[in-house]
Amino acid sequence: MTGTRMTDSQSQLLLIEDDLPLAELVCTYLEQQGFHLVHLDNAEDALLRQDTDDFDLILCDVMLPGQDGFSLYPQLAASYPCPIIFLTALDSHLDQIRGLDLGACDYLLKPVVPPLLLARIKASLRKQQPKTARDSLRLHDLALNPNLQQVNLGDEVISFTTKEFSLLWIFVLYAGKVLSREFLFEQYVGREYDGLDRAIDLKISRLRKRLDELNVPGLAITTIHGKGYLFNYLPPQRRM
In whole angstroms, what is the distance from residue 184 CA to residue 47 CA? Predict the structure, then answer.
């Protein structure tokens, strides 16, 4: 089951929930708050969409048909390097500890209180913003403003998604340095790299494609075989 999609450029969330009335309630409320929502009633379908969807956060029920949310968490986390919040009626403290130990950023008990859910989502998304006290980054005439989530190239404003901006921020912060997959994963996702996850490569590929589409001389992400990725921006020198 797919959810409705809004047209503004806000965060995109995935809801995995087989309770359809609850899913409709959550989708309606969060869309009214300005989020994009995609709803699926099982996690297996979510794994099939990993090459086409880029989510900022996932809300996942634990008691799902087929494999439960706990069992599917490792695959889900590997496919989508973003915060995952468990929604469940399992109120045992042992279940809550298990969910958090798996790596979920939060565990919310049903029945869901919409304003509390919204607050937890916002808190989790704030943790994903660039971890820096800087108000902006500048590299020649390329400028990034994390407060506005805005990228400027000279006088031109360039549109990037929230996740693209976060990854670009890391690259600009370390411009001219070769960054390993492990380092990028830990900086971007906020947890230790497990040695198996390749989702960060997909994110980098998408960002590189976006930069290539801009067709800006000197602006590129280069793969350094066996070492990682190198970002730099070296605009051609203007003739006097």
Answer: 22
The 3-state DSSP class for residue 227 equals: coil
Residue 215 inside a domain? The answer is: yes
Among the listed residues 102, 117, 85, 119, the one whose alpha carbon sits nearest the alpha carbon of residue 191: 102
DSSP conformation letters of 51-79: TT---SEEEEESS-SSS-HHHHHHHHHHH
- Do 78 and 175 share a domain, yes or no? no
Query: 54 falls in which pLDDT band (50, 70, 90)?
Result: confident
Residue numbers of the domain that contains 108: 12-128
pLDDT at 90: 84
Say which CATH number the domain at 163 has: 1.10.10.10
pLDDT digits (tens, 9 = 90+) for 7-45: 334 688 999 999 999 999 999 999 999 999 999 998 778
